[in-house]
């Protein structure tokens, strides 16, 4: 029994397409003249974009801070603090400088066999805003995250547009962008 030509072509095409995986967009370069001593300090995380975020995650994101402390060897120790009700969730990691200034590998301190993650500062004026892009490689996929950081709650004009443009250039949609819910939120110094 012979397969009709159209069905044979369809099955062949399906087999070929199964072996192809889409290539992720190329990462933008780190900013040209990154200055770690100016970048260090406390930043508010005002927005996140990533291929693992969905609209239902918006309610889970509370305002949080990221504090970058530069060491003598060029590494950044990073501490994050997020208020959840009356308690504080914290987590930390180390950014190890890569070949280009403003580009780092991430050490989560979990030992050998951990997922590889790279991060870079894409843009910053050091006093008001910063855009960071991270890509973590797991055994099955690459997880992309873009962070919109600010020294205070006000962003300079055009910064939000840069955040959205960078997100879209990496193949993300508006559904992949989350902002912390600041309704009824005030910083509790005693909590974090």
TrEMBL record:
Q: Has UniProt tagged this entry with the keyword Secreted?
A: yes
Pfam families from the UniProt entry: Lipocalin
Cellular component annotations (GO), alphabetically ordered: extracellular space
Against InterPro entries, the record matches this protein to: Calycin, LCN2/LCN12, Lipocalin, Lipocln_cytosolic_FA-bd_dom
Q: Which domain of life is it from?
A: Eukaryota
Q: Which Gene3D superfamilies match?
A: 2.40.128.20
UniProt keyword terms in alphabetical order: Disulfide bond, Glycoprotein, Secreted, Signal, Transport
Q: Which GO terms describe its molecular function?
A: small molecule binding
Signal peptide interval: 1-19
User: Family, per the entry?
Assistant: Belongs to the calycin superfamily. Lipocalin family.
Give the protein's function: Binds all-trans retinoic acid and may act as a retinoid carrier protein within the epididymis. May play a role in male fertility.
* Subunit structure of this chain's protein: Monomer.
What name appears for this protein in its UniProt entry? Answer: Epididymal-specific lipocalin-12
Which organism is this protein's natural source? Papio anubis (Olive baboon)
Write the gene name.
LCN12
């Amino acid at each position: 029994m012979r397969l009709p030509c159209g069905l044979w072509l369809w099955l062949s095409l399906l087999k070929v397409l199964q072996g192809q995986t889409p290539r992720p967009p190329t990462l933008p370069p780190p900013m040209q003249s990154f200055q770690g001593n100016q970048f260090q300090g406390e930043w508010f995380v005002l927005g996140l974009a990533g291929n693992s975020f969905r609209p239902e995650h918006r309610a889970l994101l509370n305002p949080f801070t990221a504090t970058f402390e530069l060491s003598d060897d060029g590494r950044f120790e990073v501490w994050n603090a997020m208020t959840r009700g009356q308690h504080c969730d914290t987590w930390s990691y180390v950014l190890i400088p890569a070949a280009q200034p403003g580009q780092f590998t991430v050490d989560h301190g979990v030992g050998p066999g951990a997922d590889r993650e790279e991060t870079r500062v894409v843009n910053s004026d050091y006093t008001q805003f910063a855009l960071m892009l991270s890509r973590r490689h797991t055994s099955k996929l690459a997880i992309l995250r873009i962070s919109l950081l600010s020294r205070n709650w006000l962003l300079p004009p055009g910064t939000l547009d840069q955040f959205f443009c960078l997100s879209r250039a990496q193949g993300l949609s508006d559904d992949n962008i989350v902002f912390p819910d600041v309704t009824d939120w005030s910083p509790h110094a005693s909590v974090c």
